[in-house]
Amino acid sequence: MKKMVKITLVSLIIGFIVLNCHDGFGSVGGTITVVHTNNENWIINYNLDKKVVGIMLGPETKTYHESSWNLPENFELVSEKDGYTWLKRKDSKGFRKLSFNIKTYSEMVLYAPQPFTVFDKGVSINTGPLGFSCKVNLFGISEKIYEFLPLFTFKGAKDEKIIIPGESKTENVSIPDLGSFVFFGSKDAVEETENLQLIIDDDFPQSIQKHIAPTVKRVMAYYDKNLRHAIEKKLMIQMTYETDTTVQYLIGGNAQNNQFSGKARGTVAEEDVEELVLMNKAFLAHEMAHIWQVKLGEDNMRWYAEGGADLLSYRAMIDMDIMKEDYLINRINECFTESKTELEKTSLEAPQIQGYPQLNYTAGMLTLIAAEFATAADGTRDDIFKIDRELGKTSIDSLNNFPQEAFNKTLISLGATQESVSAIEYFIHNKHENPHKAYMNLFNKTGVKYEVNEDRLLIRE
Ligand SMILES: [Zn+2]
After folding, report:
1. What is the pTM of this model?
2. How far is the CA of 283 from the centre of ligand 1 (A)?
């Protein structure tokens, strides 16, 4: 049997963060100016319209901040118990203005937004990790989380072209919640069509590079047809490559709003080309699924985001004949064996906070397969595409604030029984003393057709 490249490897290093954490009290505006002075150097200027006591920069990325951020003496970065890093004054007082230097960081950042992407013909800076939300001190009594919505102004080094997804101006630009990768560099780095901006590094291995644009276009058409239409602006894709002769080709990255960034490294041996091309296509389809799929809940629903992006992308690739069905069958078995020891230690509710982020992909995907089977109680089994489309009819308020209820209602409306929905919810909310038994219980209650031989799980589609 031909060896299979583990697609697992890819999905594990793809981060998608959901940061909707504001209390709805108010927002902070003003401006952030991002200046690319030269080569690796940037100056960031905050000029906010209200005093803040902290700016939330996303999940902890110590190595990046320690090596690249040069803050004034009276400022510091604090990791709080919410798992996020906050930019604060050392004396805890409020501030409106702050100016400091950052150096370009070229390493891959796992499970947090990628701060930079470096190309041969330019560099992209991610505005997200400059502030996702902030804290304001109200009347010296209590601290409240506010939305962080300053406008951005970008200034490039000499002769640099600046490309902001979905925008033509470079001053006072409003950037969506999660931030954007803004490209500074040569204009010939960009391939542009009516609905796509594509930046691919010059030295990207040809054998893989030539499949990127055609795959993106096919997957785009497929998701447009089978999921809700989520892309109002152009889709922007940035793919960078670093030579590294010590490892086999691998890729990771993250999606936000209507764009994603991929970072690849490693060598492509002749005999592995076919598998690595497939792995790369799977990466593209996974990241694109994040852009089209419904945004459900916050960090506690990452199992839906990641398990869903995997299942959507596998099903799409099988349907388009890019991937054989055996891949999914094999992957299901891997998810089963890989997730069992971890389910003893943590539930599927925010396992990344307990240090088991892979569970979002593995147990997340199996939960969604059980959900697909559960909808068959009325005689028709609906797939993840139908589930996601149906979920998309729910109000934004319910999706954000009552995500589990919204998910449950969706399954019921597609024909699932209350008993099967409760079984799914039970599986998600608990860690399991005997995960094997917990899976069997989940499958039995949701009507999954499966066989278990020793420890191997077989689910026939
Ligand atoms: Zn993902």
Report:
1. 0.88
2. 9
